[in-house]
Automatic annotation (TrEMBL):
Belongs to the AAA ATPase family. The chain holds residues 286 to 555 of 622 of the full protein. This is AAA-FAMILY ATPASE. Residues 50-189 form the AAA+ ATPase domain.
Length: 270
């Protein structure tokens, strides 16, 4: 398999406006990602070293990946995407090679953002069992640490990592100069759900009887991904009813919503 498998490099098209809710979080990311890249000279002048890593944690489907892409878009940075699970499943040595290669390419393409999804698979706490699989994880983690420490000398490269299991992350990654900023990406509250529904119906013609606020109120525990699915499915139901349909009506939304069960539980949200 190709050494660059799973890595994409273009500047993503997603923007901050495509993400509903999370106003404060977007501002924090903007400061952490956009500023150092756009105003690197000002940072150097003031003797401030920009952070090298941001850890995003929170339940699945709540926009960690989308936030990373929007940050790259805002900073006009190339976007390199790596999956911890994919690295872990590669042949011996191949995962480390892909990691090193990605950092190398990111340096050449700077400004760059390296997005590391399912980071806990690679960056899990060391020690414990002595099985072979632990060694694979340890080697990947040590490669990641080496590469992140090497970023000291490169400008305009930031690692954004995402995980659903922040407690599983090895403490070595949380030392200063590595993941200096840890941000929780929560499931959407009422206002955020309303905004997310707005985002995903933007290009849709919806009938006057659709009350997005009402749907937001009725969709507690839904993640952004589930709300996106709800909008898409409502459109499909409308078409299934009548392939020449031009608008999506309230009953289409209701049909889909009744069949949907949110994956999150109350305990996970509170
Ligand atoms: P995972 O942990 O499963 O990788 P994630 O937290 O990275 O999930 P994303 O992949 O960013 O989540 O989101 C999944 C989908 O849900 C995306 O297509 C995105 O458009 C939609 N989505 C999630 N949250 C939001 C939001 N706040 N606003 C708009 N869309 C959202």
């Amino acid at each position: 398999p190709s050494i660059t498998r799973g890595v994409t490099t273009e500047v993503p098209k997603v923007s901050w406006e495509d993400i509903g809710g999370l106003k404060d979080l977007k501002k924090k990311l903007q400061q952490a990602v956009e500023w150092p890249i756009k105003h690197s000279a000002a940072f150097a002048r003031m003797g401030i070293s920009p952070i090298r890593g941001v850890l995003l944690h929170g339940p699945p489907g709540c926009s960690k990946t989308t936030l990373a892409k929007a940050a790259a878009n805002a900073a006009q940075a190339s976007f390199f995407s790596l999956s911890g699970a994919e690295l872990y499943s590669m042949y011996v040595g191949e995962g480390e090679a892909l990691l090193r290669n990605t950092f190398q390419r990111a340096r050449l393409a700077a400004p760059s953002i390296i997005f590391f999804d399912e980071a806990d698979v690679v960056a899990a706490k060391r020690g414990g069992t002595s099985s072979n699989s632990t060694t694979v994880g340890e080697r990947l983690l040590s490669t990641l640490l080496t590469e992140m420490d090497g970023l000291e000398h490169s400008k305009g490269i930031l690692v954004l990592a995402a995980t659903n299991r922040p407690h599983a992350i090895d403490a070595a990654l949380m030392r200063p100069g590595r993941f200096d900023l840890v941000l929780y990406v929560p499931p959407p509250d009422l206002e955020a759900r309303y905004e997310i529904l707005g985002v995903h119906t933007r290009k849709m013609k919806i009938s006057n009887d659709v009350d997005l606020r009402r749907i937001a109120e009725d969709s507690e525990l839904f993640t952004g991904a589930e709300l996106e699915g709800l909008c898409r499915e409502a459109g499909i139901v409308a078409l299934r009813e009548n392939i020449s349909a031009t608008v999506v009506c309230n009953h289409h939304f209701q049909t889909v919503k009744e069949a949907l069960k949110p994956a999150l539980t109350r305990a996970e949200v509170e």
